[in-house]
Amino acid sequence: MTEQNLTWDYSDPLTGETMPAPFFYDPGIFAQERERIFMRSWHLVGHVNEFSEPGRYVVQDIFEQSVIVMAGQDGTISAMHNACRHRGNRLLDARRGKIGAVLRCQYHSWCYNLDGKLRAAPRTENLAGFERNNWGLKPVRMEIFANWVFVTLDDNAPPLAELTDGAEEEMRRFLPDLDNVELVEETDVIVDANWKVIHENSIEGYHFDLSGPVHKDLAALIDFSGYRLTPHGQWWTYIGPPVSGATHAYGAPLDGATWQTDWFFNIGLFPNTTFYSFPYTDMIGTFIMIPLGPEKSLLRFGYYAPKGRPVPEVTKAAIHWMNTQLGPEDIELNVTNQKGLHSRGFQSGLYLIDPERPHESEHLVHHFHTLCYQAIRE
Description:
This protein is α+β, with helices and mostly antiparallel strands and 378 residues long. Helices cover 22% and strands 27% of the residues. It is built from 7 helices and 19 strands. It has helices at 27-38, 160-163, 167-174, 195-202, 213-219, 313-340, 363-377, and strands at residues 43-47, 56-62, 65-71, 77-81, 96-98, 103-104, 111-112, 118-120, 141-145, 148-152, 181-191, 228-232, 235-240, 248-249, 252-253, 264-269, 273-277, 284-293, 296-306. The strands form 5 sheets. The protein has a 7-stranded antiparallel beta sheet with strand order 11-19-18-17-16-13-12, with helices on both faces. A hairpin with a 5-residue loop joins strand 7 and strand 8 (118-120). The radius of gyration is 22 Å and the shape is globular.
């Protein structure tokens, strides 16, 4: 039995209760999220610089759906379904790569140009009524936001420019190399937790100096009196200025290093994409929570550094620190949180929203939960 019709009153974040626990594990609710959130949302694929040569591609999976985003011979980026039009065979399995002038199906050798148009289909020349122009790969809607490539499976989804109004300007305040970065590393981690459990952990400052020692190390670089978490409809920011006098970060000296910003900068786009830069790193990070099941998610960490210059040692140390220290510490919290949500001793909790201490507030968590609830109920 599922609880897909369960309701929640989100009208009073100050004294009301949190989103009920079944929203984080119930299969029926997860099925609604799949169709009403993720099949209708925009999904980050990568930076435009990943498509700098003809044939460069990235494969983006959205549950069982698979999308190819590829640079054509003229440099135009196109998105198309990853399925041959003959019998549906999947064309590409690798996450990233480069092909020549032809995308060939390994099953019956149907061949497509880099823009998805059918180039050749063996033995169809005598097939009655066959028109090659009608059998190209099915296109997928694609848009570019702040030089990042997104796709959606919903032809009726609002354009990104409408959903992200004002977001690019905020990013450019803190990320001067936004247009000139390249991928240096991508790390995928499977976590036994609901995607919302992972996401809500990242958008509150309450646990920063109260949980594990690695969080305290990060908090030591941030002036929390100026830390602010701000909702903007379908996007939000959480930003903190640096402390004064820092000489080291992530175990490395700052002397001689370069960075995007010395601030702690994060911007999230509903439902599951975050762009960020940690203090003193010459890096733009991407953090995506990809749902695999009601209680299983894939965390995808992307690290992008400016093209044409060496990655500073502080930035290398920060990437290693994120992968081996901060990430695992957060993931442990995600997993224990997910387990506790099943307890008979818990149904709903409270949001810690203190107007006098906005840097420790959970109002962004309430905002995020409300967007999720409205998407599947309203």
